[in-house]
Known about the structure:
0% strand, mainly alpha, 218 residues, 7 helices
Amino acid sequence: MNNMQRVGGYAALVSGVQFLAILVIAFGILGPLGVTPGAPADVVLAAAAESSTPFLIQSLVVALFSITVVLSALAVRERLQAGAPNRMRIAVIAASVGSALFLGGGITSFGGLPTIVAANDLATFRVLDVVYQGLLTSAIFATGWTLILWGLAGLSTKGLPTALNYIMLVGGVVAVLAFAIPILGLLGVVINVVWAFWLGLVLLRQPAAMAVRAKPAM
């Protein structure tokens, strides 16, 4: 098996663990504290003052996406590029943009939150939250296009399971629309758990030679 596909397979599995971690933090830890999508900034700051650990872990998880999304994109490109070279190039570009935004958002939150919480500075916290949410939403938007391109290329080349391709397409559309419909963000995380684990297993278990060498298409 190609080494890049193996690396990308492990990266996709790690992504699945990351998505699960986000769900656990959101519903199991922050939710009971009143920290839900759209919660007032003072409520969120009060929860962070009580315990900043879940927020910091969440920030690190977001930053780690900067690595896993690119490795997964390179692996999928290697698998499907014979039949969809242009779409795979664009998918890697979109993943790289998303990677930079994930890194920026995660590190900004991780570095700025402790100082703001210690100072109990609500105004500065609002600014940090706007910046963080903006970077995160942009990263999700860019990565959504990566998923859409993977799904389309997988369907045309038959290089990935059909059901997986459709799940990635749905996940991609949800991610792209999440900036306009915030509630889709949580739905997207649930969908992402499914495709991430499935993609990881496909890349690790199915020989690279199974990828169909279809007639090159855009």
